[in-house]
Specification:
Length: about 600
């Protein structure tokens, strides 16, 4: 079995059922059936062949989520090529690095904006022969650029392709977004993906009745497997969000039954709910907190394998109508569950949503593991963990606490980088994840931090920043945080406050909010944040306490190269950018 044979089976089985849906600007969602999907993939693959693509040629994609991305992926594979996906937020220099490192022969681009990036650097990419543009253009295209539709038209004139693709062939080279250094190209085979697909499908039921809203980048392996291969091979429908800024509206448009996201979405939804409650009357606040307490009691009973009592179920019914109905409506009203990955999900967020009757299933994996290593699933889950290992793989904890895994999900290696490959895959086949964690008595994995993120204080104490940061961002007044303190006497923090929440608080406490930088310096705001830190870290050891902090005037962002496309902080970049600020928090050590 290959990704192509699985795709062909779905096309044959689900025929006229909607496979993909997209929303043109100013329009409504339009469906593409499995038959139409399959025909276009065939035409595109043959068009690639006509343009000179041969077995194992690399073809890059830089595009937002849209039907052409899905068509290109299967078309590339069907032509025997290797898909090299890229985040649409990458700079021209980053695009040039990946094209050169992968030796890409073609690249597919979505818009003129993405085309301009490639045009800027293409003279420095010797292997690049052709650029394929998804959008139609009324302008004359530069030499070496052809429209997607033209490629498909050429393909329609060609007979069947005589290309054999095996399960051990490389299907994709995904460049890790990386928080340090140049990205490495992870080679994943058809077999890697299919082993992971089968493991996940045995735990989570996705069928032809499901609708998924896709907004995480398809260039990320989490969305590639869970929001692309799983639904397509299951006969489900994928609706593409217009952008990351329209997710709320698009949930209303398509009423998804399953949705994948990183924790940031759930944290944002949670914060908005709490802010709306705080703005309400004392009676509304009282009803809300009563509803949460009822939902929490129901959640607790379910987690213990008990059935809620008849009285509790009655209270739950009332709480749903008075408190949680609006939240469920925001998700489209049909959601079976959310799936969370890419970063740690605060346990309190998962517990809040479950109290509201919405289950968030957290999983864990890496690009190098195709990606899933462990997951919670509807019949077995434990908040605060990333679930148990999926079937067919092995997981072990090394002496230093690092999580190791072995099995058919582990990558073939890093492209053209044997040295880096041998650094992470040992002689016994164990892949070293770089994550620190434990396996509890129930077999659930709990991640404590990244190995390279561990802070070693000058007194030799080790501090894992992730649990502290996860606790602190639950404050309504803290939006983003990065702890520092390596080789220092104590822990300090760079904090991006929740500016809206601070403005509301300031208005209620006679603090001038007209000038944000000046507001952040006021004694009242400084004391508020200090109290939030003290209260939320009360259960942590003395050496783990945050002794100093600075409130930053703007949030960390991808545009400033402070975050990866999957919204992980680039700690080294931030440390360098705010070096003077950090030194100012340790004047006695200067």
């Amino acid at each position: 079995m290959t990704l192509i044979s699985m795709f062909d089976e779905s096309v044959q089985q689900f025929g006229e059922k909607p496979a993909l849906a997209h929303k043109p600007k100013g329009g409504t969602y339009q469906d593409i059936t499995y038959s139409e999907f399959g025909n276009t993939v065939d035409a595109f693959s043959k068009g690639l062949n006509a343009l000179g693509i041969e077995k194992e040629d690399r073809i890059a994609i830089i595009s937002e989520n849209r039907p052409e991305w899905a068509i290109s992926d299967f078309g590339i594979l069907k032509a025997g090529g290797i898909n090299v996906p890229m985040f649409s937020t990458l700079t021209p220099v980053q695009v040039g690095y990946i094209l050169n490192d992968s030796g890409a022969k073609f690249i597919c681009v979505s818009t003129k904006k993405q085309l301009d990036k490639v045009i800027e650097i293409r003279d420095g990419v010797e292997t690049l022969e052709q650029i394929i543009l998804y959008d139609t253009s009324e302008e004359d295209l530069p030499e070496g650029v052809i429209e997607f539709n033209e490629v498909c038209e050429r393909g329609k004139e060609i007979d069947e392709l005589d290309i054999h693709v095996s399960e051990e062939d490389v299907a994709t080279i995904i460049y890790t977004s990386g928080t340090t250094g140049n990205p490495k190209g992870v080679m994943l085979t058809h077999s890697n993906f299919l082993s992971n697909y089968n493991a996940c499908k045995s735990l989570i039921h996705v069928s032809a009745t499901d609708v998924l809203l896709s907004f995480l980048p398809l260039s990320h392996v989490f969305e590639r497997l869970g929001g692309h291969y799983v639904p397509i091979f299951s006969g489900a429908k994928i609706a593409y969000a217009e952008s990351t800024f329209t997710v709320a509206q698009n949930m209303q448009d398509v009423s998804p039954t399953v949705m994948l996201s990183v924790p940031r979405l759930y944290e944002t939804m949670h914060d908005r709910v709490l802010r709306a409650v705080e703005a309400g009357s004392p009676l509304k606040q009282k009803i809300f907190h009563w509803g949460v307490s009822v939902g929490s009691a129901v959640s607790s009973a379910i987690q213990q394998g008990k059935k809620p009592s008849p009285i509790l179920k009655l209270k739950q019914s009332i709480a749903d109508k008075l408190v949680f109905a609006k939240l469920k409506t925001v998700t489209g009203g049909r959601l079976r569950f959310f799936v969370s990955g890419g970063a740690a999900l605060p346990q309190s967020i998962a517990e809040f949503f479950h109290a509201a009757g919405i289950l968030i299933l957290e999983g864990y994996g890496l690009t190098e593991t195709s990606p899933v290593i462990s997951m919670n699933y509807p019949d077995k889950w434990k908040f605060g963990t990333v679930g148990a290992p999926v079937p067919g793989i092995e997981v072990n904890i090394a002496e230093d606490g690092e999580i190791l895994t072995r099995g058919p999900h582990v990558m073939k290696g890093y492209f053209n980088n044997e040295e880096a490959t041998t650094e992470v895959i040992d002689g016994d086949g164990w892949f070293h994840t770089g994550d620190i964690g434990v396996i509890d008595e129930g077999g659930y994995i709990k991640i404590t931090d990244r190995k390279k993120n561990i802070i070693v204080l000058s007194n030799g104490k080790n501090v894992a920043p992730q649990p502290l940061e996860s606790q602190l961002v639950q404050s309504p007044y803290i939006d983003q945080i990065m702890l520092i303190g390596n080789e220092r006497k104590n822990i300090a923090a760079l904090i991006v406050p929740n500016f809206d929440a601070l403005k509301t608080w300031g208005g209620e406490n006679e603090v001038d909010t007209s000038d944000i930088p000046e507001m952040l310096k006021t004694r009242e705001v400084q004391q508020l944040i200090q109290k939030e830190i003290r209260d939320r870290l009360s259960d942590f050891a003395d050496f783990e306490q945050v002794r100093r902090f600075v409130l930053l005037e703007k949030e960390f962002s991808q545009e400033e190269d402070e975050m990866t496309p999957t919204l992980k902080l680039k700690r080294n970049v931030i440390m360098e950018k705010y070096a003077d600020v950090i030194e100012g928090m340790y004047p006695e050590e200067a």
